[in-house]
Design a protein that fits this description.
By secondary structure, the chain is α/β, with parallel strands linked by helices. The protein folds into 2 domains: 147 residues, TPP-binding domain (Rossmann fold, 3-Layer(aba) Sandwich); 81 residues, 2-Layer Sandwich (SIR2/SIRT2 'Small Domain'), CATH 3.30.1600.10. It binds 2'-O-acetyl adenosine-5-diphosphoribose (OAD). 2'-O-acetyl adenosine-5-diphosphoribose binds next to strand 8.
C-alpha cells in the first residue's frame, strides 16, 4: 500500500480502468462470479445485437430492470476517491467498462465509457442518441421521435467500441506513469488489453480487486480488498 501511494503521489499522468467491481459496494451486481448477472442470464440472449433483433421487448425488459436497480444505487467512497485523484493530477483519464453512470454521479469529469451508457437511448433508424433517465420506461421497446425503435446506448458483445474513444483510451494507457485497474475481471477485450499496453510502455500497474484475476501475476502491485475501502486510503 505504501509503495502504491508513493507511485501515485509522484506520477503526473494517471490512467484508471474500472469494471463492475467498483460499483459492487453501491449494490450494483457484477457480471461474473457466484452472484454475477451472467450466472442467472445468458449474455447471448440479452447482450448481443442478434438477441435484440430476435426479441427487442425481452432485451428491453432486462435493461429496464437493470436501470431500475441502478437508479436506487449511490456512488460509494471508491467512486468519490477517483474524483479526488482527478482533482490532484494534471493528466488524468478515467476509462470505464461500466454503463451505470455512477462515476458521473460521483462527480468525475470526462469519462471514457468503453461500453456505453445505460441512461442513453439510440434510434435504430435515424441514429439519434439521447439521455433518458425515466424508470421504468413508459413503453417497451421505447421509440424515437422519428418513429424508429430505440435500443439501449450500450455496447453489446460483437460490437465495436464507440468511435474515437478506444484510440483515446489507448493513448492514455500508453502515456500513463501509473495505471490503476479497479474491480474488473480483466477478461473482456479489448478493454483488458489496456493493461498490456500500459505495461509495455513501462507504466506502474496497480490492481485493486477482492480476488485474484488473470492479470494479478503481471501487475506491479495487487491490492486485495474492496475498492470502496482501499481507494480512499490510496488517494488520501
Ligand atoms: P466482472 O463481473 O467480470 O468482474 C468484476 C470484478 O470485480 C471481479 O474480478 C471481482 O472480483 C471484482 N470485485 C467485486 N467486488 C469488488 C469490490 N468491492 N472491490 C473491488 N473489486 C471487486 O465485471 P467487468 O470486469 O467489469 O460487458 O466485466 C467486463 C464486461 O463484461 C462488462 O462491461 C460487461 C460484461 O459482460 C458487456 O456487457 C459488453
Amino acid at each position: 500500500m505504501q509503495q502504491a501511494r508513493e507511485w501515485i503521489k509522484n506520477a503526473s499522468k494517471i490512467a484508471v480502468l474500472t469494471g463492475a467491481g467498483i460499483s459492487a459496494e453501491s449494490g450494483v451486481p457484477t457480471f461474473r462470479g457466484d452472484q454475477g448477472l451472467w450466472k442467472q442470464y445468458k449474455p447471448e440472449e440479452l447482450a448481443t445485437p442478434e438477441a435484440f433483433l430476435r426479441d427487442p421487448r425481452l432485451v428491453w425488459e432486462w435493461y429496464d430492470w437493470r436501470r431500475h436497480s441502478i437508479a436506487k444505487a449511490l456512488p460509494n467512497p471508491g467512486h468519490k476517491a477517483l474524483v479526488e485523484l482527478e482533482c490532484q493530477k494534471r493528466y488524468f483519464t478515467l476509462i470505464t467498462q461500466n454503463v451505470d453512470g455512477l462515476h458521473d454521479r460521483a462527480g468525475s469529469g470526462r469519462i471514457l465509457k468503453l461500453h456505453g451508457d445505460i441512461w442513453r437511448l439510440r434510434c435504430l433508424d435515424c441514429r439519434a442518441d439521447w439521455p433518458d433517465r425515466r424508470v421504468p420506461l413508459p413503453k417497451l421497446p421505447p421509440h424515437c421521435r422519428c418513429g424508429g425503435m430505440a435500443r439501449p446506448g450500450v455496447v453489446w458483445f460483437g460490437e465495436p467500441l464507440p468511435d474515437g474513444m478506444w484510440m483515446e483510451a489507448e493513448h492514455a494507457a500508453a502515456a500513463a506513469e501509473v495505471l490503476l485497474v479497479i474491480g474488473t475481471s480483466a477478461v473482456v477485450y479489448p478493454a483488458a488489453s489496456l493493461v498490456t499496453l500500459a505495461r509495455a510502455a513501462k507504466a506502474r500497474i496497480i490492481e485493486i480487486n477482492i480476488e485474484e484475476t488473470p492479470i494479478s501475476g503481471e501487475v506491479d502491485c495487487s491490492l486485495r480488498g474492496p475498492s470502496g475501502e482501499i481507494l480512499p486510503k490510496l488517494v488520501a
